[in-house]
Structures are given as structure tokens and as C-alpha cells.
Amino acid sequence: MTTDDTVTNTEQLEKQQSPKKKLKLKKVKDQVIVITGATSGIGLVTARMAAEKGAKVVAAARNEDALQELVDEVKKKGHEAIYVKADVGKEEDVNRIAETAISSFGRFDTWVNNAAVSVFGHAMDVTTEDMKRVFDTNFWGPVYGTRAAVKHFTSRGGPGALINVGSLFGDRGTVIQSTYASAKFALHGWTESIRMELEKEQVPVSVTLIHPGRIDTPYNEHARSYLDKQPAHYRSMIYPPEAAAEAILFAAEHPKRDMYIGSQAKAIAMLGALFPRLTDRLMEKIMYYSQHAERPSKPREKSALYHAGYGMHDRGTNKGWLRSRSYYAKTTKRPAVTAAVAVGLACVWAAVKRTK
Hints:
It comes from Bacillus halotolerans. InterPro entries: KR_dom, NAD(P)-bd_dom_sf, Sc_DH/Rdtase_CS, SDR_fam. Belongs to the short-chain dehydrogenases/reductases (SDR) family. Pfam families: adh_short. By secondary structure, the protein is α/β, with parallel strands linked by helices. It has a single domain, classed as 3-Layer(aba) Sandwich (Rossmann fold). The protein contains 12 helices and 13 strands. Helix 2 packs across helix 8, helix 5 runs parallel beside helix 6 and helix 9 crosses helix 10.
């Protein structure tokens, strides 16, 4: 072995053993942000919020009329935005989103894989064709988006953020939405795996998984239903889409591994991991009656599974305990503050115990 070989090997070893430098992401106001599923629910609120903060927005969805309306709305307020009509279940469409962002703005800094669709029905009733279509959107769409984003971030040599929107049902299975839960489980596994690979190779990409609880969006109205009654979040705690949008844009600026939208999402994940059989029983008891409203279900052909649904609605027709925000998501933005509060409460509790 030559001296040059020894030096090269030593440098490589030092690089492997050195701690990964914390990524420094741009402020949202200085970013170009790609958002899929941008014409409804979380995606729509995120696009509007990002534009208000000064970001250049690349909105992608299947509904071209809604996309045009969104871009016109954003531009009238003095912000920059473009749209790409795309079906994220098709890799060529996803690549076209990336190409359009680069040709229009020269780059993109954050890619948000948000587009999703669901099927409500008993597992043995749902056709395998419908199951595959859900996976096309909810799993393969984020896979295609991840590949396009990482390729761009790697080639340009600068840091970027990849944000995948998962679900509380990606941490814990459920009845009635078995296909949706399975696709989100797959997305969670993909996100963790690609994060580790990129980190091992020290690729400058921040990978965040968003874990929304039940969010008040039209997602249930867009779903294909095998039920007699209309899918809906019902008789449960429901969070506003703004809570998820805030978490997404926080992750665009600050590298975060996971962000849970609502203590509901975190509690179900923890309960399922610690007490799986108890959680089975609870889900069996709660999820049958809390996933539909007391009105007839829409015909299957009117769902958004195979074609674009109606756009420009950020809220759904859900009924329950509608929260105005997620305090849990807000506190996890500042873990040091959260830890300090926890320590303070523990000290107070200990002091109280001593006086008794």
C-alpha cells in the first residue's frame, strides 16, 4: 500500500466517523417549495401559508381548474406560484413537477409529499384494483417524489428538505381503512429507510415524517366508500389543517425527524407499541362508529380515487371536537422548552410530595 493510499483511506475513515453536521436550511421566505395534493386540505393550506411567508410555490395536483384558481389567488396577493397538473401515481408526472420547478425557478428547496386518497370498507370487500390505486398515490407517489427530490438536492450540492405526510394510521392499523393504513405503514417504512441511507452517506437532505391525527379536511369526501354511510371524522377529536401546515413549514426550516399533529397521534402510536392487544380492543370499539357520519354514502364512482376530486376546499364536513390548534405540535417545535417545562413540573410534584 502506498503512502497516498494510506492518506486516502485515513481521510475516508475520518469522514465516516465524524459526527454529521447539522443541516442549515433556508428560511421559508427564501425557498422554492413543491407541494403535491396542493388543491385540497393540508396541501391547500400549506401552499397558501408558504406563499404568505414569501416562498415561491410549485403546486401540483390532478385538478387543473383548482390549480389555476390557487395560483391566481396567490399571485393577486403579490406572491409567486406556478402549477403542474400531475398524477403522483405516475413517475413521469412526478419527474415533470421537478423539471418544471427547476426550469421556472432554477431549483427547489423543499419537497412535500402530501397527496393521498383513501378507501373506506371492510378489507375483504375492497377490490385489489382499488387497493393498488391507493398504493399508487399514497406510497409510490412519495417514492417517486423522494427520488426526484434527492436527485436534485444531490446534484446541486446544497441542503434541502424532504417532507412526507404520513398518518396516525401509519403507526397503528385500523378497521375500515385497512388499505389506507397499509399504504401509510409502507410510507413510514420507506421514510425511515431512506433517511438512514442518506444520513449514512452524509447527503445534505433533511427527511421529516409528519404524523397527522384526525384532520378536518375533505379527505373523507374524496375517498371511495364501500360503506352505507358517508365516511367522516365523527364523534372524535379533530385538528385544523393549519396545525399540519405549520408543522410542515417548520420542518422546511428546521431539520426534524418526526412531527406529530396532535397528542392523539402520539398517544395512539405509543399505546399501540406498549399495549398492542389493548389497543386492538380500543380500535375495534371506537373506529367502527367514529369513521362515518349519519347520512348516506356517496356513490363509489364519485370518489377521487381514479380522477380529480373537487378542489379549493380546506375543510371537510366532519363533526366532533374541533380543535383550533395542536398544542402538542407547537411544543415539539421547541424540545428544549418542552423538556424544561417537564423538569419544572417534576420538581413541583416532588416538592409537593415532600410537604405531605
